[in-house]
Amino acid sequence: MRGNGGMTALAGALPVLLVAALALGLACISWGLPWPYALVSFLLICLAALFSSNTAAVARLETAETHDGIWPDNSIKATVNALRQSALVLDLRGTVRYLNDRAVAEFPATRAGDPLALTFRAPRIGEVLRELAKPARVDLEIRSAGQAKVYEIAFSPLNLPGSEAGFVLVVFEDQTERLAIDRMRTDFIANASHELRTPLASLTGFIETLLGPARDDPAASDRFLRIMLEQAGRMRRLIDDLLSLSRAEMKVHRRPKDKVDVIGVLKQVGDALGPMAERLEVALEFDLPKGPVAVLGERDELLQVFENLMENGLKYGSSGKRILVSLADAAPGNCTVSVRDWGAGIAADHLPRLTERFYRVDPQASRQTRGTGLGLAIVKHILTRHEGRLTVDSAPGEGTTFHVTLPRAPDVTLMEEIEPSQELRA
User: Is 0.70 surpassed by the pTM of this model?
Assistant: First the structure.
């Protein structure tokens, strides 16, 4: 094993040796020395390199092979391996003496026998390594499996039973997701504050005007009051959506257990949006099976999902003058509801961000249609709770289709029948 380490090192150094031999040969020729001298010199160089490489490899392997020796038994090793985080053990010189299974997988370049400072090169790590006898915590960004991750690294002195040497347990807590959530929360609060501040500033301005210059101007008062009513409605819609999003997030891990007829939900939404479709002169069409289709869900939340999607189609796809809502079987045990419009469509670079909070493809159009930028975020969270998924097909000039896939209920027989008043004309 050790010989293999030396030969591996020699093989890695072979290009350098060949260059050195060539230079030596040219020097011997220029000095007028016979070729045997050059050959002997080359062999001496190879032997020196082999000896040096083999010595380094042996030292490294001896260090690595003895790391199990610091454990009096396997119980502590099993305990460290049982940690859900990546963890390793250092000696007081900062040399890695043991890695648990997760650390081996997460940091493949780190091996027993390596100085930790060579693997994780950061000034703060160096400071901690100089005082390893003291507990410490370090936040560090590390590239793992090709991705940049942020870890909170905890250094804790560890006295192992049966060992006179001092050791340090190093635990890596992945903070990447938490920091991303914190950034999202900060952005969300900032965006929500901005969205509320705009209509509030408008209301304040008009109230001041009505109390001042427009106090005795009936025409101006009437116009300003209408604008104020519109801005108050904008604030109400935003607050309603914020509350809906908050409720969806709070219940995201609670799987609904009620049987809900998707056909009945779609028809109820169609009835509610019928006047809006007539006002926009858009045909709201349905292609649905006759019998009920049952899923496990919460009826009010599913109503909100399909109301948001159909309302978006009417708002942003009305130029196509047609919205088609259809339902079909998907993979075994699933059904897919599709809401298609023939409007302007959405460019590909916008599609991955459609469910982000406050994201708008066209901010100007969204303001004109009184959108809050939260509708699809609410849809995503509700579908996550229902173990469903949302996909979208769109291209500029070709319209947009949203697909909602939901798992069917195990028993498709429903206790309630669809009321005749729920049926819509296609």
Answer: no
